[in-house]
From TrEMBL:
Keywords annotated in UniProt: ATP-binding, Nucleotide-binding, Transport
Domain ABC transporter: 6-242
Cellular component per GO, a single term: ATP-binding cassette (ABC) transporter complex, substrate-binding subunit-containing
UniProt-listed Pfam families: ABC_tran, OB_MalK
GO BP of this protein: carbohydrate transport
Organism domain of life: Bacteria
Database matches in NCBIfam families: PRK11650.1
The keyword Zinc belongs to this UniProt entry's keyword annotation: no
PANTHER family, A to Z: MALTODEXTRIN IMPORT ATP-BINDING PROTEIN MSMX, OSMOPROTECTIVE COMPOUNDS UPTAKE ATP-BINDING PROTEIN GGTA
Organism: Oceaniferula marina
Presence of the UniProt keyword Transport in the record: yes
Protein name: sn-glycerol-3-phosphate ABC transporter ATP-binding protein UgpC
InterPro entries linked: AAA+_ATPase, ABC_transporter-like_ATP-bd, ABC_transporter-like_CS, ABC_transpr_MalK-like, ABC_transpr_MalK/UgpC-like, Mo/tungstate-bd_C_term_dom, NA-bd_OB-fold, OB_MalK-like
Any one GO molecular function term: ABC-type transporter activity
Length: 375
């Protein structure tokens, strides 16, 4: 079977102003290997370079430096139609005057496929996507989710090496997004094709990707599988971007006393929180006595009851409580930071008084605030 990997080496994109001078460095000499048959998600905030990267893979955006290879062939100088890719956009880009069948057939007719081959490919794609009963309808008769399925079907019939998705679910409502992302994930399993998917939604990224590339300001912050990305963020940006709510990041210093190693929060309006450290996190903190350090812990590792070999307790007043059903996220007001903890709704009673919370230190992280890298 033909190799459909995508290899990106030192890929650079600089936009120029009217005078031909550099005005914006959108993508900064990134390297990325996307494996044959992999579902790779590019995720990050607006302006991070993820869509620009996707458009350069597609050939819709010129590159300022570096190489892009699909399979074993460098495609830098190939036009989009010669790259053997198919792209699905967020705005569907369907022809309103054509039936679904004709929308899906259009590209194949341009390439002079026989009617029998076109019929076969469209029937195959429409069955996979549940579109068969709708093939003679026009786009205006469909819901947003159905239109997006047609756009995906139009890509499938081309049998491309690589599928490229540019925020395809952003125009759908919340319920439709959930069902359509499940359909795209099932489609990937069925086709086994290489798929590169851009989104700003980290929930989409976590639920869909075999691996995730987190981008910021044109750079790659981390590439990893979803669980490792969540559990072992390489830096403060990934820790704060992946997860909902994100990881708590408290700025402070490390102190040593007779009682042991302690993280002391930066002082604000009230008394600074003091977190006594144990286990691996205490060993790492020993190397930073007297130094500025960021203490990171996820909300689910802050709870009413001790849940780990190494835990410590803090007490703080509740600023806000967000009841999410069985679980409640409480925002505890420390001296300078809010600490979000996940507690059981049944056992929680909303109060402005002090709440005792146990921190699972086996899951805590320390970061260097200068480099923002995990220790």
């Amino acid at each position: 079977m033909e190799d459909a990997s995508v290899s990106i080496k030192s890929l650079d994109k600089v936009y120029l102003d009217d005078k031909g001078k550099p005005s914006f460095h959108a993508v900064k000499a990134i390297d990325l290997e996307i494996h044959d048959g992999e579902f790779m998600v590019l995720v990050g905030p607006s302006g991070c370079g993820k869509s620009t990267t996707l458009r350069m893979i597609a050939g819709l955006e010129s590159i300022s430096g570096g190489t892009i290879s699909i399979g074993n062939a460098v495609v830098n100088d190939l036009s989009p139609k010669d790259r053997d890719i198919a792209m699905v956009f967020q705005n569907y880009a369907l022809y309103p005057h054509m039936t679904l069948y004709d929308n899906m057939a259009f590209g194949l007719k341009l390439k002079k496929f026989s009617k029998a081959e076109i019929d076969e490919r469209i029937q195959e794609a429409s069955e996979i996507l549940g579109l068969t009963p709708m093939l003679q309808r026009k786009p205006k008769a469909l819901s947003g989710g159905q239109r997006q399925r047609v756009a995906v079907g139009r890509a499938i019939v081309r049998h491309p090496k690589v599928f490229l998705f540019d925020e395809p679910l952003s125009n759908l409502d919340a319920k439709m997004r959930v069902s359509t992302r499940a359909e795209i994930s099932k489609l990937h399993k069925k086709l086994g094709s290489t798929m590169v998917y851009v989104t700003h939604d980290q929930v989409e990224a976590m639920t869909m990707g075999d691996r995730i590339t987190v981008m910021k300001d044109g750079d790659i912050m981390q590439v990893d599988d979803p669980l490792n990305l969540y559990q072992n963020p390489a830096n403060m940006f990934v820790a704060g971007f992946i997860g909902s709510p994100p990881m708590n990041l408290l700025h402070g210093t490390i102190e040593s006393s007779e009682s042991g190693i302690t993280f002391v929060e930066e002082s604000g309006e009230g008394e600074a929180a003091r977190i006594t450290l144990h286990g691996d996190v205490a060993q790492k903190a020993e190397q930073r006595i007297g130094q500025a350090t960021v203490f990171g812990i996820r909300p689910e590792h802050c709870s009413e009851h001790p849940s780990a070999t190494h835990s410590t307790q803090i007490s703080a007043p509740v600023e806000i409580a967000e009841i999410m059903g069985e679980e409640t996220y409480v925002h505890l007001q420390l001296s300078k930071h809010l600490l979000i903890a996940r507690v059981n709704t049944e056992s929680y009673r909303e109060t402005t008084q002090q709440l005792n919370i146990h921190l699972n230190l086996d899951k805590a992280k320390l970061f260097d605030p200068a480099t923002e890298q995990v220790l």
